[in-house]
């Protein structure tokens, strides 16, 4: 079946390739960053670390090629480079020994600024800091977890590959990578980020529902999915066994379904506005770029959200069979 590509249509902006990381701590909390009020993309929103692909990340298929919207090494490198630039969390390995690279805070801060200013590439900086030895971002441990394509009616569009990365859980002796200096997140001095912290998925969702933080639909949706597995035990009852069990269940979920969540592609589509002012958002379309490709979104739930100049709020995810008569398609 041929792919109906919108790239022959001049009225639809081409989505820029980008990547984001759902970084899960050693205690199964999730990292979110708050963007600055002056940010050109999603001002003041709490987002997963991530950003656009750059030339240094490697080749990306051209617009119009369906492979542009598939997981690849360039998306993975971009995800971990942006994670480092925005939060200071460094996830890279010596390719010969397989050992994780550890760098003190002062050198990491210098590296973040240099890479952001394009004074040096991420890979060049890694090699330099590792005494010239070949070093790569730890791309193998990134787990694809949906792709999101901005709807056609929005001027600034992105095709964003989402990943999960699990920081190691300490062993019974308390040893683990999460104790290393390379793992503690911090903002970038206000260049793009004003806050960086880990919280339980359910805590982030409660803050969004209370209007204390602004979550975009992809963040709200994916945190809701993760919360079903990572927040199943109270903090007082957690153990290393419980933490590992939570992760196994989430991984089983991510790889389950037809298609699995690793392959799902979502382009949110506003269907209508309800009487309470909220929009009913469908999640079943993969977007115009992937019409006829066989890719699909989520068919069994819809999202409700109120959109205004401050961004989305009052978000709710409901099953299709749970919709009111007013919201039926």
Automatic annotation (TrEMBL):
Keywords recorded for this protein, A-Z: Hydrolase, Magnesium, Manganese, Metal-binding
PANTHER family: ACYL-COENZYME A DIPHOSPHATASE NUDT19, TESTOSTERONE-REGULATED PROTEIN RP2
Cofactor: Mn(2+); Mg(2+)
Domain Nudix hydrolase: 13-231
Gene3D superfamilies to which the protein is assigned, alphabetical: Nucleoside Triphosphate Pyrophosphohydrolase
Cellular component terms per the entry's GO annotation: mitochondrion
Name of the protein in its database record: Nudix hydrolase domain-containing protein
Top-level taxon of origin: Eukaryota
Native organism: Penicillium concentricum
Example of a GO MF term: metal ion binding
């Amino acid at each position: 079946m041929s792919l109906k590509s919108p790239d022959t249509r001049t009225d639809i902006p081409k989505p820029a390739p980008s990547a984001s990381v759902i970084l899960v701590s050693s205690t199964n909390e999730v990292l979110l960053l708050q963007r600055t009020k002056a940010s050109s993309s999603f001002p003041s929103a709490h987002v997963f670390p991530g950003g656009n692909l750059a030339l240094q990340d490697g080749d990306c298929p051209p617009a119009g090629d369906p492979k542009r919207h598939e997981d690849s090494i360039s998306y993975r490198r971009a995800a971990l480079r942006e994670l480092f630039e925005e939060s200071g969390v460094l996830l890279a390995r010596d390719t010969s020994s397989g050992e994780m690279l550890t760098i003190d805070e002062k050198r990491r801060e210098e590296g973040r600024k240099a890479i952001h200013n394009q004074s040096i590439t991420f890979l060049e900086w890694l090699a330099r800091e590792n005494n010239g030895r070949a070093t790569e971002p730890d791309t193998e441990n990134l787990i694809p977890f949906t792709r999101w394509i901005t709807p056609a009616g929005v001027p600034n569009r992105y095709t964003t590959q989402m990943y999960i990365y699990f920081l190691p859980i300490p062993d019974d002796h308390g040893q683990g990578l999460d104790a290393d200096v390379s793992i503690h997140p911090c903002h970038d001095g206000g260049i793009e980020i004003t806050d960086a912290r880990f919280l339980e998925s359910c805590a982030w969702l409660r803050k969004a529902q209370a209007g204390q933080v602004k979550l975009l639909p992809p963040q709200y949706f994916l945190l809701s999915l993760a919360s079903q597995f990572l927040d199943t035990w109270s903090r007082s009852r957690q153990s290393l066994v419980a933490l590992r069990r939570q992760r196994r269940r989430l991984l089983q979920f991510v790889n389950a379904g037809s298609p699995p969540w690793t392959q799902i592609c979502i382009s949110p589509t506003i269907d209508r506005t309800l009487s309470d002012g909220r929009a009913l958002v469908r999640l079943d379309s993969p977007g115009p770029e992937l019409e006829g490709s066989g890719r699909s979104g989520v068919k069994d739930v819809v999202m409700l959200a109120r959109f205004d100049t401050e961004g989305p709020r009052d978000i709710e995810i409901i099953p299709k069979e749970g919709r009111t008569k007013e919201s039926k398609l």
